[in-house]
Amino acid sequence: MTTTFTDETRERARDIIARYPADRSRSALLPLLHLVQAEEGYVSPAGVAFCAEVLGLNKAQVGAVATFYTMYKRKPTGDFLVSVCTNTMCNVLGGQEVYDTLAEHLGVGHDETTADGTITLEHAECLAACDYGPVMTVNYDFFDGVDASTAVGVVDELRAGGRPMPTRGARLCTLKEMAVQLAGFADERDGAVADGGPGEPTLRGLRLAQQHGVSVPGFDPNTPIRSKAEADKAAAEAKAKAEAAKPAPVEASAAPVKGSDGASAPTGAAAVAEPAKPAGATEPAKPAGATEPAKPADATGSTTRDVKAPDDKSPQVRTAETRQPDASTAAPDASGTKVPTDATGTAPEAGDARAAEAAGVAANPPAGDGKPAGDEAGAQERNLTEAKAGTDADGAGPADANETGAQK
Predict the structure, then answer these.
(1) What pLDDT does residue 306 have?
(2) Mean pLDDT across the chain
(3) 81 contacts 71 by C-beta, under 8 angstroms
(4) What is the reported pLDDT for 305?
(5) What is residue 124's three-state secondary structure?
(6) Tens digits of residue pLDDT in 336-358
(7) What distance in Å separates the CA atoms of residue 254 and residue 259, rounded to the nearest whole number?
(8) CA distances (Å), origin 35, targets 15, 303, 347, 378
(9) Gap between the Cα atoms of 54 and 36, Å rounded
(10) Alpha-carbon distances of 117 from 37, 78, 80, 349, rounded to whole Å
(11) Residue ranges in 78-195 assigned as alpha helix (H)
(12) Which pLDDT score is estimated for 58?
């Protein structure tokens, strides 16, 4: 097992970490795990320790990530990882038969490697290529529409030293070479990306669009993609143009105008009079049994105003404020939602929601990079002291003390 990584790996690790802000270096953990896998063929305990060292994390934090994702292998893997989709769509089309045939032909099961170290076989829950099923991948490059015989032909060619061409994508490389690419570095092999192409089902929509003349209005495929600065400038100009095109607001008269009955009449935009009704006109009679349409408030039983929430509020915050509103600051904004009340029908006091949130935040300090959450020496010492005190007081043994602590 490798315990010291090469200077090239350490240099690449520094390049990966430099891609992220200084205070967000732990975000580089995923590509770093691919990097150590590129050297050893899997993420070994030494690889976990290396990632923890360069990022300033502990090994438990690195191991939690490495064991979560299936792309990180925890034991030596062959040069070619053969993954066969056995999920619903591919299974119906023969995916399980392909996997069973390969397992018998290679003499290995799931996540096992052939004796010559060439091939590791695994079944995959989904390879996201249902329209090409049944599919299998070799180091994540696709072989579409396979059956048992074609799958056996692919693995036999791999074991003989050949490199069969995938249905889609570039020419095959080893798992270690693929891990380098997944870490964010280009494939340096001569002509590595010269071959391959898209599959016909992928192009079907494009061909139909061309056949029927369907395209986005004003679309020019030769238009270069604008930089963020250019896009922001264009958006600002468009916004300014839209603001300038808005009509000026109508100012209302300062003094109210008296109507014929002495009441104040609306002014400004609201002062537009309704058209006069013909003399002798009456309201049309309503059909028997007809009722007035229900108003939105009557239909929903809402006790809140339908107020648009500020743009900087997340949906979770708006939902929380509606369910437990703080009368001093919150503006209920979900039409159709009632303010909660207790058993006596009393609404919560102002400030209850924010006070509860503040208390929860104070009682749950965030975990730092140094130690996982809850790993506090003070809490451990307090528990040991309480257990010892309970034993000395009543003469209970360790088992009794643990039971007493559990009851507490």
Answers:
(1) 53
(2) 75
(3) no
(4) 52
(5) strand
(6) 545 556 667 666 555 555 676 77
(7) 16
(8) 11, 57, 57, 38
(9) 12
(10) 16, 5, 9, 69
(11) 88-92, 95-106, 148-159, 175-182
(12) 87
Alpha-carbon gap, residue 62 to 60, rounded angstroms: 5
Residues linked to residue 123 through DSSP beta bridges, in sequence order: 84
Classify the C-alpha dihedral 137-142-144-149 as positive or negative: negative
Q: How far apart are CA 128 and CA 255, in angstroms?
A: 69
Q: Which two tokens stand for residue 260?
A: 């014929």
pLDDT tens per residue across span 217-275: 776 767 667 777 888 888 899 899 988 888 877 765 555 555 555 555 555 444 444 55
CB burial of residue 148 (10 Å; 0-12, 13-18, 19+): middle
Residues in the chain: 408
Neighbours of 244 (CB within 10 A): 7
Provide the pLDDT for residue 125: 87
DSSP string, 295-327: PHHHHHT--S---PPPTT--HHHHHHHHHS--T
Bridge-based pairing state of the strands 141-143 and 264-265: unpaired
Q: Token pair of 159, please?
A: 């074991």
What is the largest distance, in Å, between two alpha-carbon atoms of the chain? Answer: 103
For residues 98 and 94, give the distance between their C-alpha atoms in angstroms, rounded to a whole number.
6
What amino acid occupies position 137?
A: T
Burial string for 67-93 (b: 16+ CB within 10 Å, else e) reads: eeeeebbbeebbbbbbbbbbbebbbeb
The more confidently predicted of residues 374 and 54 is 54
- Closest CA relative to residue 57, chosen from 370, 295, 337, 380: 370
State what percent of residues in the chain have pLDDT above 70. Answer: 59
The arrangement of strands across the sheet holding 141-143 comes to 112-113, 119-124, 80-85, 136-138, 141-143
Please, what is the Cα angle at 203 between 202 and 209, to 5 degrees?
125
